[in-house]
Every structure is written in structure tokens, then in C-alpha cells.
Amino acid sequence: MQSMYAFKGTESDDLIKEQKFLLHSLDSMYDLYLSVVALLIELHKKSKDHNEKIKNKIVKSEADKNLSHKLQDNQLLHLISSNTILQEAISSSKLNFWHLDFEYVDIIFKDILKSDLYKFYTDEKETSFKKDKHFIIDVFTEIIAPNEKLYEFFEDKKLTWIDDLPVVNTAILRILRKLKLTSPETALLPELYKDEDDLEFAKELLQKTFLNNSKFAEEISKKTTNWDSERLASIDGVLLRMALCEFQKFSSIPYKVTINEYLEIAKEYSTPKSSLFINGILDKIVKEYQAENLYLKTGRGLM
């Protein structure tokens, strides 16, 4: 969608260039994943440094005397921080930049310390990997993932990343929930694609939408004579053209699956009324295809 929206040329322009942009954007999603996990490692380091500074104070407050080491000793954070292949992946990709952008680590760390989550966690006398894991998952969900400063940081760092941040955060939570003390180190280094078919689908969808852009736009315009042309030039128009590509060029994808996917994307990226607009147009097109036996779907249980 981003590639097609950014594209302002015609079918005769350079498709290879657009494919490179697409693949670069997809690879950037993995870099973003490693960067966020690296932040967890830095927060673990910060907890150790914080405790060491308080320990070395000459005059200690009452709170300093009752300093908790639970965050420093958190078993999940230790599992992540001690993962050697994860550390190598972060280092080789040059994504260990949090020591340079330490102010963001400080912001998150202070937010954790003043949170009710931290208070309840440190007040709990019983310790276990399960409790440690639940605490980090809660911190990630309520403090790290929604942090506006982090959004601004990643937006400044690499523009293609910011739209992928919610997807990456969801993936991280899924991985954290599955982690066990006995999990292999590779559990923290998931594959970017489920299989080669995933990558091929991304390239093929871009290619076929790109090469049939004018044809799809013309077909959509016939169904949208009463709609503002600006809407069709926006994200809505891009999503409609991509949906038509799936309708016509991917016989194994059911119409309902395509429609539902693009409605969800519209809700995330376009206007409040976009999903209703897109649903109406696509539903109308599907009914015409089915009435004329065009672009029949193949495979068991497909329609």
C-alpha cells in the first residue's frame, strides 16, 4: 500500500525500483523489531546502573535503604540480555544505538519506576519466572508500546518504520508470552516471513497492481461516478486497486478474505468513512463478477 501510494508514475516506469523500496521496507520491519528488543536490554542495564549508583551513595534516604533489586534480577530480562545470538544480530545490524539515545531509555525507565505496576511487582514477596514475565509483558503493553516519545524517535530515525511499530509491538508480545526458561536462543529471532510464499506474494501483489494500475483505476471509476475524485486518488483508491488485483489475479484468495483485509487496513490508515465506502464498492464489484462468472475462485470452500 505504501509503495503504491508513493508511486506517481505510469506502468511504463521502473518496477524494479518500486520492488526494491518494498523489500527495503519489509527488511526495515525486522530492524525495528531488533531495535525494540534492544531497548529491553538497555532497560535491564539501566536497572543495574541505577541500583549501583544508589548503593554507592554516602547518604541514603529511607527509600534508598529499601531498594528493590527485582527489576535487575528479573528472569525474563536476564534471558533476553544474555541471548548471545540476539546480541550478535543487534550488533551486526548496527542497531545498538540506545547508549547514544540514552534519554529515551531514561524516560521509559522513570515511567516504570513511578508506575503502580512496579509498586505491586516490588511489593510482591514471591518471585518466579512466570511473575517476572507477566510484569515485563504488562510494562511493555502499558508503558513502552504506547509511549509517544518512542514513536517520535522511530519516526526521526527511519521514516518507513513508524507505521510498522504496532505490528512489531504485537509480535514482540506474542514472543514474550511464549518464552520459557528452557526456550532456545532462536526463539527471540523469529523469521520475517512465514515461508517463501509470503515474500513472493508481497512482490507479486505489488507487481500485478503496478502493471494493471490504469486498468483497475478505470474499472473503479465506473463504479464511483458519484464520489469525489480526490477520494479515489487517496489511500482509498490505492486499497481499491489492490483489492481488485487480488480479485482478478489471485484465484486462491476468497473474495471475503480480500474485502475483510482491506477494510481493516482502511480503518487503520484512512478516514472514518473509508471502510464503508470501500466495502460498498467491493461488494458491488464482487456481485457483478459472480453474476457474470468472472474471476472464479479455485480451491475447496472458496467463493
Automatic annotation (TrEMBL):
Organism, scientific name: Winogradskyella litoriviva
Keyword Acyltransferase part of the UniProt annotation: no
Keywords recorded for this protein, A-Z: RNA-binding, Transcription, Transcription antitermination, Transcription regulation
Protein name: Transcription antitermination factor NusB
SUPFAM superfamilies according to UniProt: NusB-like
Family classification: Belongs to the NusB family.
A Pfam family assignment: NusB
InterPro entries cross-referenced by the UniProt entry: NusB-like_sf, NusB_fam, NusB_RsmB_TIM44
UniProt domain NusB/RsmB/TIM44: residue ranges: 195-287
